[in-house]
Fold this sequence. Notes:
The protein is of the alpha/beta class and 514 residues long. It has helices at 3-8, 11-19, 25-43, 51-66, 109-116, 159-166, 183-189, 223-233, 251-257, 278-293, 309-324, 346-357, 360-373, 379-402, 425-429, 436-441, 471-489, 501-505; strands spanning 46-49, 79-82, 121-125, 172-176, 192-195, 216-220, 264-268, 297-301, 405-409, 445-452, 459-465. Strand 10 and strand 11 form a beta hairpin.
Amino acid sequence: MTNSELIRSSAANLATRLAAKEISAVEVTQAHLDRIAAVDGALNAFLHINTDEALSVAADVDARRAHGEDLHELAGVPIAVKDLIVTIGQPTTAGSRILDGWHSPYDATVVRKLREARMPILGKTNLDEFAMGSSTEHSAFGPTRNPWDLDRIPGGSGGGSAAAVAAFEAPLALGTDTGGSIRQPGAVTGTVGVKPTYGAVSRYGAIAMASSLDQIGPVSRTVLDSALLQEVIGGHDPFDSTSLTDPSTGLVAAARLGNVSGMKIGIIRELHGEGYQAGVENRFNESLELLKQAGAEIVEVSCPNFQYALGAYYLIMPSEASSNLAKFDGVRFGLRTLPGDGPMTIERVMGATRAAGFGDEVKRRIILGTYALSAGYYDAYYGSAQKVRTLIQQDFNAAFSQTDVLISPTAPTTAFKLGEKLDDPLAMYLNDVATIPANLAGVPGLSLPGGLADEDGLPVGIQLLAPAREDARLYRVGAVLESLLEQSWGGPLLDQAPELAGAAAGLAGTKEAK
Ligand code: GLN
């Protein structure tokens, strides 16, 4: 296989060829590292590149395979990791200056599982600071750019992971999704992203933003690849007290089965139509038509409380974040900034460190959260938001009593221009209107590419939602829709993305300096 074939292969295809010894893990890993060197100067998807370790893990896989050792199916398939997830031997920044110089003394459970499967870790990907954002513009290390159009955002907060996979820098990546940060970047970059059921994948070692909403999940170019990755990272973990003991199994089998005949698929009335871009709506309707032709029954359901989801989220999330981020005090982790003059008290060191170390969006949310939790307002804000959360769960229960899965566009618009919403937090928050309900209720969601919008030729995402612990259903329906759509396009959507090598060639090599 040529380098270009290697980087364009799915993880499943690489795994098959590796097992057949048609290709080596070193070859595959090197091809991706070369691609990163060629295009990441233009994209800024990676904050750290893990060249030596990735190649040595790959060499070890090749040696073991040569000796006939029984290896994990994905052994030798490289992966990128969102830089919110801690790793031994590489920096973890959370996209923030406040973690300057900090190295984690332990691996996240998901990272330990990647190592056990012997998947070479290519590096750590860019994100909005502490995963707060929908565009990756809030990273302290500069924005990531969308491979479809370098003037546009790759979504957020996991724009680095999505852009890396969309640009063939990695076949797989890990993301985290608190309000949509895996699914919305998937939508705007033409990739697949999955937020598993809350508790299906351990959060141990994912730097907490809002603990009751955060979830680690897969990023890939195919539905099957996400299923393969979720089977690696999922399962019970005694280090995460919210980890499920009985998560959904059979994900890969469900993705391979791909059959929707007789299934009931519900359109959520509140999650399309007004406020959604025309091209998004058109692609959404086409997907419904394809599912109908494949034998699914399409019904309409109403989730009236979803209109309050965004409001509830932007109280609960900052409240939890304000508490989770209190540990960044200038003493325990990373950056310490001393006050310029006056007494050197702990409060003043903390203040100076946070003033220098946190960006505007993080400060905004900490202030919002502490306000919402303050004695006089707790019931009115945080308490009410929790009640809305219960109502949203009830809406889901009612919807799933009539349907097997729900469907909506993943995001109301395609990728917007860099800078377009940076000064308007509310406009930025609106991007998550369709993804947030799943986090509030803990149910799983999958976004897959649904085609290109008529107006701008940019990717549109289709979101599937299932009841808690029914992640397998997402893979089953997602695989059918993906295959029908690809038939209609004559191949994967990313085949239509512009060739990056030319645009980025002038910047090749600039990454090694990081
Ligand atoms: N964009 C949402 C926010 O800014 C979601 C973030 C996330 O899922 N990490 O909070």
